[in-house]
Amino acid sequence: MSGWNSKMLPAIALLAMTGCAVGPRYTRPQAATPPAFKEVPPGWKQAQPSDQAIRGKWWEIFQDPQLNALEEKINVSNQTLKASYDQFLQARALVRFHRADLFPTFDAGASASRNRLSQNRGQTSFVSRTNYSDLQIPVVTVSYEPDLFGRIRNTVQGFRSSAQASAGDLESVSLTLHGDLANNYFQLRTLDAEEQLLNSTVSAYEKALQLTENRHTGGVASAVDVAQAQTQLENARAQAIDVQVARAQFEHSIAVLIGEPASTFSLPFAPGNTAPPVIPVGVPSDLLERRPDIAASERRVSAANAQLGVARAAYFPVLNLSGSGGLESGNITTLFSGPSAFYSVGANALVTAFDVGRRRAITEQSKAAYDQSVANYRQTLLTAFQEVEDNLAALRILEDEANRQRLAVDAAEKSLGLSVNRYKGGVTTYLEVTTAQGIALTDERFAVQILARRMAASVQLIQALGGGWNASQLPTGNSDSLPRPSGQ
Known about the structure:
Layout: H1 2-17, H2 65-77, H3 79-99, E1 105-116, E2 131-144, H4 151-217, H5 223-257, H6 287-290, H7 292-313, E3 318-329, E4 341-350, H8 358-424, H9 430-464
Antiparallel strand pairs: 1-2, 2-3, 3-4
Helix pairs in contact: 2-4, 3-4, 4-5, 4-7, 4-9, 5-9, 7-8, 8-9
């Protein structure tokens, strides 16, 4: 036995060290990338040099202290983000679990027994005792599977890539939550602006009602004029109240996003009227590094590639090395003497000779899964380009619309002033005034709503650009610890 060990074990060890992986070498899939975004508004600068790029706390670009304070609470208290982080921790633990297969496994133990043999059993050899003891201490067992054909290495790489994809998913969840908060916040501030507009309209309508009542008392105006003025006033009051329903819902949504009960959270009234900032865009190829969902999709391609290597390794033999040793004696007084030592070493190799096409089916399934992940990656890229173009177009078109709407508001206010003067001069009926009032209010509310859409498009553009995230923030593929992502 010792001669076999001295000759075979060094050869086996050398074979283990020089084993080669049989899986395909991984390269990032090729995907068509346009040279530039076509919907960039005139006058906007590309995100070059890098000091113009969006930073990690991208919401600070809006320069709203209240928004900044709310955004900071998401990483601390949002439960959806915590759940996503725990999912990442599970994926990271699986990497360590499978990585342990690259190393030998050691077991240690001890045993003691007292035995009595039956005196009536059939015997093929002479037994001098029917009662005996057996002591073993310590018993050390070693088992090791050399990774000759990369099965274990590809398995570890697959789970490492999956953990990186999970980290990308975590960053995507974080980006979505921060974006949802910003959207809800700006919608709420827009509703505050609408309420402010409606309250000022109510004040103007109250004065108009007082005018018609005075004219009616003086016999100049009819009761119809008073009724029309009263109708306009109550309609404006009803609209001002109706705005509060949507505002309350946005306020409750913000409470959930920052991890607070809706019953105990409130935001003070603060109308928003600030135009969206200019957002640095960059070039389409930047999205490959700036969007966490693209990075996660690419890591899933890597995981599928590694799984294909695992499937191909099934065609090759599996080698197992094992050994055990310790001290054994029937009497404790001789347990630690030299003759009590024992050991055993061995190796076995196993290869599947015939499996009715099972390995081929698994390989074909792994290849199809890889092709699917590549298609998903390319589709994610196309969707990313679309989202950026959509919001660039929205910002460009809505800015033009806002400029036109301001002209419409100015014209409506001028028309209302002329109608009021005509009514005071007795040239026209109050119907002309109410018509002008309705048009002016509609135009002003529409201008406020356009601003809300512009703010929403700004937030969505930042999300589409990755929110200042970069693929370098993924846990490194060469690190076995897979550190905590920036989202937590």
